[in-house]
Structure formats: structure tokens, C-alpha cells
Amino acid sequence: MRFAIEKKNARAYRSGSDWFLARLARIPMEEAARAARESGIDPFQALDMTEKQKTEINRRLNLWDKELEAELTRMNGMVFVEGEFSLAEKPETKLTIIREFIGDSGQVGDASKRFRAVRFRVETEATAAMKKLISKGKANLHVFGYVLGPLRNDGFIEVQAIAIY
Asked: For 36, which DSSP code?
């Protein structure tokens, strides 16, 4: 997993909230400190923000919403998806499992704005081991797979599983 991510051949996804936290972590400390100084926010005091500060925070969150949308709609190559998967279909030869990345509430980023629901739909072979793993209808899994289709209007990202553990 580490090799694929370090070589920039794969992206890892757990949840929409985790994506926003990782995006926040990519801001260099100097930039974060400068932005805090410019906005008048003291990171060591409870936030009692002015309208200007709230506007700036919402501007950044909206920018990140657009960045996430662009990333998901252009997604290709390999991905790691982890978290609780639900069994969607149980035919004889293939299984379809679903990971909710952003739920129906859409609460990521700007709390006053709803991001559309996003789910990873993963196709895998219906082996005996896989059937046992997902026998209760839900399972906490790590999926390594190939993106068959990026985010579409129906809210699904299609993935063909390469490995599940």
C-alpha cells in the first residue's frame, strides 16, 4: 500500500471528513500561521469569530468542496478504500459492496452547505472467503482496486477490487 501511494499511483479514501482533515494538514504551517494572523484568529483561544473570519473560513471550505468534487469526478487509476462496507448484491459469481464516503447528510466542509452523497461501489468475485467475510451484511474492510468510473451524477464511483483484506 505504501509503495503505491508513494509512487503516486494510488489514492487512499476513508471518508469525506478525513479528506478535509488531510487537506487541512497539507497547508504549510507558515501559511496557516500567516492566515491566522491576517484573520486575527488566535489559535490558543476559543473561537469567537467575526463575520470577516467566518467568511474567510467558508471561502476556504467552498474552495476545498470544489477541489474534492474535481478530484472525485476525474478519479482514475488505483485506489485504496477503507471503512465499513455493506453488501449491496449477492449474485452467484460477483459481489457488490458499497462504502459510504459522504453520507446522505452531506455534512463535510461548510456546515451550512450540503455536499452530495458519494459512495464507492466495489465489484469483486464471489469467492467462499469473500462470502464469509461479508456474511453479516457489513464488514470493516480495506479494498485495493482499479477505478472503472469516476464520480457520476448518481453519486457512485465504480471500482474493481484487486485485493480485499
From this structure: H
**DSSP helix/strand/coil, 8:** coil
Closest CA to 19 of 147, 165, 120, 144: 120
What pairing do the DSSP bridges indicate for beta strands 78-89 and 94-102?
A: antiparallel
- The pLDDT of residue 37 is 67
Q: Which residue has the cell 459512495?
A: 119
DSSP 61-91: HHHHHHHHHHHHHT--SEEEEEEEEEEEE--
In terms of DSSP bridges, do strands 118-125 and 156-164 run parallel, antiparallel, or are they unpaired? parallel
C-alpha cell at position 157: 464511483
Q: In the chain, which stretches have pLDDT less than 50?
A: 109-110
Give residue 109's pLDDT: 46
CA-CA-CA-CA torsion sign (20, 118, 98, 107):
positive
Return d(Cα 17, Cα 57) in angstroms, integer.
16
Helix (H, G, I), strand (E, B) or coil at 153: coil
